[in-house]
Amino acid sequence: MGANNGKQYGSEGKGSSSISSDVSSSTDHTPTQAQKNVATSEDSDLSMRTLSTPSPALICPPTLPGFQNGRGSSTSSSSITGETVAMVHSPPPTRLTHPLIRLASRPQKEQASIERLPDHSMVQIFSFLPTNQLCRCARVCRRWYNLAWDPRLWRTIRLTGETINVDRALKVLTRRLCQDTPNVCLMLETVAVSGCRRLTDRGLYTIAQCCPELRRLEVSGCYNISNEAVFDVVSLCPNLEHLDVSGCSKVTCISLTREASIKLSPLHGKQISIRYLDMTDCFVLEDEGLHTIAAHCTQLTHLYLRRCVRLTDEGLRYLMIYCTSIKELSVSDCRFVSDFGLREIAKLESRLRYLSIAHCGRVTDVGIRYVAKYCSKLRYLNARGCEGITDHGVEYLAKNCTKLKSLDIGKCPLVSDTGLECLALNCFNLKRLSLKSCESITGQGLQIVAANCFDLQLLNVQDCEVSVEALRFVKRHCKRCVIEHTNPAFF
């Protein structure tokens, strides 16, 4: 679409001029009868060929979704006269009155359907397009060019793809967006270039230099990013609140100082305003790096450290000293986190709503008791693979966190129907429950849960020894519940 549109924008009306030249050549000389016959047969063949591959300038797109798929007409039909259409296209049968086909009898020039839309509607449609498609639309015609570069559409840059030269793309886009305000792009607030492996520190430096109002940055999977680039962004973008560097294995620290060993106290006047930080799969992150992050990012409310395998309980202790407002925390697959780490996490008290400790094999009922005792407003707990959790831990959790909505205790072989019964009798708001590979669970425990938790929406009992009757009982009592199972007799 981009190439075709570029040609049409550069040579508007070229098709109509060639057709008009054919018309003028046929009127200069008086043709003989034989020539008329030949011309008639040629016109008939030309008409057949034209109708088999209709020009987008002659047939309007029937609906707006046609534009969204990138097939909208790019030239105005006003340059093609009724006589020319009549000569190129044979008149349709009398019974054919399709409103989308232009007839020679219509004297007025008409526009394509999408061209009739007002500017604000076009801008609304453009707002759903990714950045690369929006740039292609800017090449269609002059009106689309002006609409596509409306400042309201450039609060976000979203690029994806492993082959795209992201550094160059960001340089070109920011240069265009800085035309009205030289060297500064004040409208851009979000940059999402996840999965762009060719992104380097140079691209992030461009963003840091030109976009002081940046609030959200997503560079997950861009493994060429280093601490230096992150330092440039957080130093030059004081309003940054959302940072996703998951999968950036070279990132080991986020700070306002080039020396990672220098810490800032919470009372320091200059702090990073990040509230959401995702460092999933940052394998090199260690306790000292987490200490620096906590000291510089004291306003954190959402922190995800999945598969940061070098972290220990000491890193969590540093975190709780500085970041006391955390609502969501994930330390899944951090195999060195134990009950002592959960004791530190419990210091968040009622502020903690989401906690994931999946596959933390050193966690037992002791750590669960700490969390349940102090974090009474916990809504989500993922403890899958914590084989040290038993019915006692589930019981203590159920009695203290009565507003629990989602619980995953899959692959906890020591949890049985006793723990499920206590859970069902206390957590009536439970909506999601995963018991995958819980060997001690039977149909009796499921029936107790179904009889008390009517709002249950998802139940995972894969690889559990439960009967078909128990699954049917759950289905009858929990109408909206989706049951994930491995019992071939139940359907």
What does this protein structure show overall?
The protein is of the alpha/beta class and 491 residues long. It is 38% helix and 8% strand. A 13-stranded parallel sheet has the order 1-2-3-4-5-6-7-8-9-10-11-12-13, with no helix packed on it. Helix 9 runs parallel beside helix 10 (201-210), helix 14 runs parallel beside helix 15 (365-374) and helix 15 (365-374) packs parallel to helix 16 (391-400). The longest helix has 20 residues, at 33-52. It starts with a helix and ends in a 7-residue tail after the last strand.
Quick description:
This protein is of the alpha/beta class. It has 19 helices and 13 strands. The protein has helices at 2-10, 14-28, 33-52, 65-68, 82-88, 119-126, 131-137, 142-148, 166-177, 201-210, 227-236, 287-296, 313-322, 339-345, 365-374, 391-400, 417-426, 443-452, 468-477, and strands at 156-158, 190-192, 216-218, 242-244, 276-278, 302-304, 328-330, 354-356, 380-382, 406-408, 432-434, 458-460, 482-484.
- Spatial order of the strands forming the largest sheet: 1-2-3-4-5-6-7-8-9-10-11-12-13
Strand content: 5-15%
Structural class: alpha/beta
Spans where pLDDT lies below 50 across 5 or more residues: 1-107
Number of beta-strand segments? 13
Query: How many helices does DSSP assign?
Result: 19
Rg over CA atoms, rounded to whole Å, is: 32 Å
Helix content: 25-40%
Q: Kindly state the mean pLDDT as a whole number? A: 79
> How is the main sheet built?
13 strands, parallel
Between the first and last Cα atoms, what is the distance in angstroms? 47 Å
Shape: globular
